[in-house]
Amino acid sequence: MSAPKTLAFIDLLAQRRRLGERIDKAVMSAVDAGQWIMGPQVREFEKRLAEFGGAKFALSCANGTDALALPLMAWDIGPGDAVFCPSFTFAATAEVVPWVGASPVFVDILPDTFNMNPADLEAAIAKTKADGKLTPKVVIAVDLFGQPADYPAIKAICDREGLKLIADSAQGFGCTLDGKHPLHWADVATTSFFPAKPLGCYGDGGAVLTNDAGLVELMDSLRVHGKATQRDVEGRSFAHDPKYLNMRVGMNSRLDTIQAAILLEKLDVYAWEIDRRNEVADRYAQQLSDVARTPAVIEGGRSTWAQYTIEVEDRDGLAQALKAVGVPTAAYYPIPLHMQPAYDSHPLSPSGLPVTLDKAKRVISLPMHPDLNVEDQDYIIQSVRNAIGANA
Length: 392
Ligand SMILES: *Cc1c(COP(=O)(O)O)cnc(C)c1O
Fold this sequence. Notes:
The chain is about 40% helix and about 15% strand. By secondary structure, it is an alpha/beta fold. It folds into 2 domains: about 10-270, Aspartate Aminotransferase, domain 2, CATH 3.40.640.10; about 270-390, Aspartate Aminotransferase, domain 1 (Alpha-Beta Complex). The chain is globular and about 75 Å long. The model has no long low-confidence stretch (mean pLDDT about 95). It binds pyridoxal-5'-phosphate. Pyridoxal-5'-phosphate binds near residues 89, 171 and 192.
């Protein structure tokens, strides 16, 4: 084995070097044009993002958390409403629910894909209805670590129960199931452009994708302080700019023009990057599946591999051994949301989420990014094999 290295977990600077001057030029042209808020790059990016994600419309916003809040606000979700979501996810998935006054109901995950378990969702809905305190309204499925949730099964449940479906694709934007994007099943798909997400910018950003024209109009109003929409002003005589007619309580959630300019360049190479991430994932699977539980992808699914997450008995021991040889790792997520002080008062599926509890103790994510070269990846793989051998 070669001398110890110091590797990056997600090497954003390698991507920056690869993209070269394209981004610098795009940024400076946005700066020089002076339209720093809602400049032409924002509309152009929304159009191209919608095309990429198989949507009629994409609406950009300030981050992936607001992207989840906007449809809930537009649908008037509020006190007394139940929103079903996994507990094994980033906090933002559930955070938006109490924001609007509603209650999350936490659902367990499947042991092989880490994504929402449709049977457990059904059990949680049945219990919520039997308890009679909350009205089921929305399901937020998460494309955890990049791979699509079981949308056909979840969508069938939503249709039967009359629930809206949001695909939280912050980690999985660009993932597909049988060649189709999550929006094929969901009412709304959301994403985040936080730098470490598969499609990231150089700051915060997010977007909502949908095929529903009326919903886009409402969310467009909500992201700019509830400004009047075309429909709002129809038949009204309002002498001022409709943006000074506030029809609803909204928020300020816009994507900066500079970030849109960066994202336009990054979207150009995004399909290529997803291919590279899949090559990295395939190499990990080939060379680690005999010593650790490597991630399974749903049949017909293609992941964007936001994370490459394996399961081992001694997660902390492996993390320490890898750290000593310059290989960073991360544990997503060590404390499930239903056990967090901010969320532990909300209801759960009657199962008690056994799979979530088990995974939280044993998952560990390895370096994953499109610029991970074979030599560095071999070093990581060899280091994992050595560490697990030593700990055995
Ligand atoms: C990152 C993330 C979000 C929130 O995105 P921000 O842009 O950080 O607000 C929401 N859901 C999931 C699953 C995420 O990973």
